Amino acid sequence: MQILIAPNAFKNSLPADKVAQAIAAGLTRSKLSCNITNFPIGDGGDGTMEILRSHLKLETVNVCSNDPLGRPIESTYGYRSSTQTAFIEMRDTAGIRLLEEQELNPMKTSSIATGKVILDALNRGARDIILGVGGSATVDGGCGMMAALGVKFINGGGDVLGLYPESLQEVEEIDFSGVHERLKY
User: Fold this and answer.
1) Are 67 and 93 in contact (CB under 8 A)?
2) 79 pLDDT more than 80
3) Per-residue model confidence as pLDDT tens digits over 81-111
4) 91 burial level (CB within 10 Å; 0-12, 13-18, 19+)
5) Residue 124 near residue 87, CB atoms below 8 Å
6) Count of C-beta atoms within a 10 Å radius of residue 71
């Protein structure tokens, strides 16, 4: 008998690879006569990029970034030089897992750090970017990411707005003139 173990992560419990290992260990202990293949998967959310980095043998790029509240952190993304493709997971910079329970306030968080990681990938030469958006602590609709890439959000008085959702209701104009050159059509 052939058994394929292909779990997603168990939210706030185990990553997909550890789930697969636990299931395989249980089957092995059961003495069932079978060949087991572990193939953890991701649905685009937490852990997806780790799985892709492992399966695709991607280079790991370290980058200085920020958490959803703007505090400095070290984060990583996967990169494949042969195709100039970056694999970025939003949870690594804007993830809910980076915050303490008392810090959970989506009106005070931003996706700007994810934009900084995208900027790093663009500057590295990425032509394609695969972005996993699960596990985010933000509700800014990607405005923080766009701001990091040169987009300005302006209110009725001509002022550039902050990058947090509580100020986005004041947006009257979006200025794309400063967007990163590689993103212009």
Assistant:
1) yes
2) yes
3) 999 999 999 989 999 989 999 999 999 999 9
4) buried
5) no
6) 12
Hey, what amino acid is at 160?
Answer: V
Give burial (CB, 10 Å; 0-12/13-18/19+) of 81: exposed
CA separation for the pair 87, 106 (Å, rounded) = 25
Both tokens of 165, joined, read 């959702």
The strand ranges marked E within the chain are 2-5, 35-38, 59-66, 72-80, 85-89, 128-132, 152-154, 173-175
| Residue 174 main-chain phi, psi, to 5 deg | -120, 120
Helix, strand, coil tally for the chain in percent (to 5)? 35, 25, 40
Structure tokens at 159: 């002022």
